[in-house]
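TA notes, week 10

Several of you asked for a full example with nothing omitted. So below is the full record: structure tokens for the whole chain, then the designed sequence directly under it. When grading your own attempts, check the secondary structure regions first.
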């Protein structure tokens, strides 16, 4: 009788098999929840669009670091970083303007020693192409002006040298010859300006004594791109002024000359400084 009462009040013992099953089941449920949460992320990462975009991103950013290494080996890392950053700002001027016009454009691609470029189909409106071409040097000059302002504030000649480099490369880019930005603008004003651009480039080679195979290769490229079109305009084979309304042509011409004047003034004011 006493033994039966003791058995009646005895607490039930836990079953180990059930507890283990519950633990395994909880882990499986947790994994299922995580899989459900990250399913969308994995789908996006493995989508066809990302597979197409990844090489472009790799090429763009890879070219930036390659250019950074190139300029750093010549001028040092500090100047190389600032110089590449100013080139990037220049290219963003083109990119943002083209995209504002609804024209698809690639990310900037850098070429060590030659700057950078963005790839985009030309707009059927030559005036828009000229505005997009001007936007690059305009952004670049603004970046150089920021360096100059910082140099004035801190008194550090390094930033004056950066400002001079920025003004100079953007002034060079405004030469009215293809494939430079100035050539895109000159085509809207008058195609015959390409001959002036070629002459300016030759004078630049002589003045700065850039007598190298690399410089002459660029000269050949500029001559081949600009001279045939300029001669065709002189002979009346093509319209020397592209189909742009007179008002737009005048406005673009004023903006072009004004930007050249600002860039020349900035380069003259900052010349002589050395990156240290």
């Amino acid at each position: 009788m006493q033994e039966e009462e003791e058995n009646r009040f005895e607490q039930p013992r836990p079953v180990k098999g059930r507890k283990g099953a519950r633990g395994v089941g909880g882990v499986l449920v947790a994994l299922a929840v995580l899989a459900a949460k990250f399913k969308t992320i994995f789908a996006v990462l493995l989508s066809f669009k990302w597979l197409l975009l990844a090489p472009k991103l790799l090429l763009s950013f890879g070219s930036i670091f390659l250019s950074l290494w190139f300029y750093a080996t010549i001028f040092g890392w500090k100047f190389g970083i600032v110089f590449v950053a100013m080139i990037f700002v220049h290219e963003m001027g083109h990119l943002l303007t083209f995209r504002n016009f609804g024209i698809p454009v690639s990310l900037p691609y850098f070429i060590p020693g030659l700057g950078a470029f963005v790839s985009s189909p030309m707009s059927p409106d030559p005036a828009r192409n000229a505005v997009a071409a001007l936007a690059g040097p305009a952004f670049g000059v603004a970046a150089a002006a920021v360096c100059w302002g910082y140099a004035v504030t801190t008194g550090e000649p390094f930033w004056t040298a950066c400002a001079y480099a920025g003004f100079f490369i953007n002034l060079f880019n405004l030469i009215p010859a293809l494939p430079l930005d100035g050539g895109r603008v000159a085509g809207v004003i008058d195609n015959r300006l390409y001959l002036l651009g070629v002459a300016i480039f030759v004078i630049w080679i002589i003045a700065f004594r850039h007598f190298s195979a690399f410089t002459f290769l660029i000269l050949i490229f500029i001559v081949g791109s600009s001279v045939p079109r300029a001669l065709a305009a002189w002979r009346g084979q093509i319209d020397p002024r592209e189909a742009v309304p007179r008002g737009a042509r005048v406005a673009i011409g004023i903006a072009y000359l004004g930007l050249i004047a600002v860039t020349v003034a900035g380069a003259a004011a900052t010349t002589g400084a050395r990156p240290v």
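Residues 14-46 form one domain. Use that as a sanity check on your answer.
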